[in-house]
Design brief:
The protein has about 190 residues and is an all-alpha fold. It is built from 6 helices and no strands. Among the domains are: about 90 residues; about 35 residues, no CATH class.
């Protein structure tokens, strides 16, 4: 697969973090950080389920949530940067000009179809076989080796008469009621 094909795949199917993965990430952080705050409460000689213990645990929850939010924001920004890089490689000005050209073609076909009271789909159904046949015939004709041009003798054309001594005069060229006879004795004019 070429880089361009990979880029189009990345645009159509970006690698985003799913909600399920976000929840797993936040819960994992909550468990790890909350465990640290439980250990901190134990070493601080706090009475379990006292107001100070609950405040410390609540702070642990807030810290874990904030760290999770920051990590998810960083991951989201990285994903956005990756998508931006791919889009800048694929969605070039030339791509947009091509899309505009096809849009103009579509509008023109729609206009012509409307004159015949047909929809765009009906017009495309009508035109598609003709366009395919014409394009296919053109491509086949271009892929064939051209036949050599036939010679004058093959076409039954007499060879030109020999040039008279001293060259052709203007009267000879304009014929001035003269009859030119070929080398074979046939009258040319």
């Amino acid at each position: 697969m070429t880089q361009d094909e990979e880029d189009w795949d990345k645009i159509s199917m970006p690698a985003l973090l799913s909600a399920k993965h976000m929840i797993y990430l936040i819960l994992t952080l909550e468990i790890i950080i909350q465990s640290l705050f439980l250990i901190l409460a134990e070493y601080s000689d706090m009475t379990a389920l006292s107001i100070q213990w609950w405040i410390l645990q609540f702070n642990g929850l807030v810290v874990a949530t904030n760290i999770g939010a920051v990590i998810l924001a960083i991951m989201a920004q990285k994903t956005a940067n990756d998508i931006g890089k791919v889009q800048s490689r694929v969605l070039t000005p030339d791509f947009y000009r091509t899309v505009m050209a096809f849009t103009k073609l579509k509008v023109a076909v729609e206009g012509e179809a409307a004159k015949d009271e047909r929809s765009l789909d009906e017009e495309m159904q009508h035109l598609a076989p003709h366009m395919y046949s014409a394009l296919r015939s053109y491509l086949i004709s271009r892929s064939m080796m051209p036949l050599p041009a036939p010679g004058l003798e093959d076409l039954g054309v007499e060879p030109a008469p020999a040039q008279p001594d001293g060259g052709w005069t203007e009267d000879d060229l304009l014929l001035n009621n003269k009859t030119i006879v070929s080398d074979r004795g046939h009258n040319l004019y």
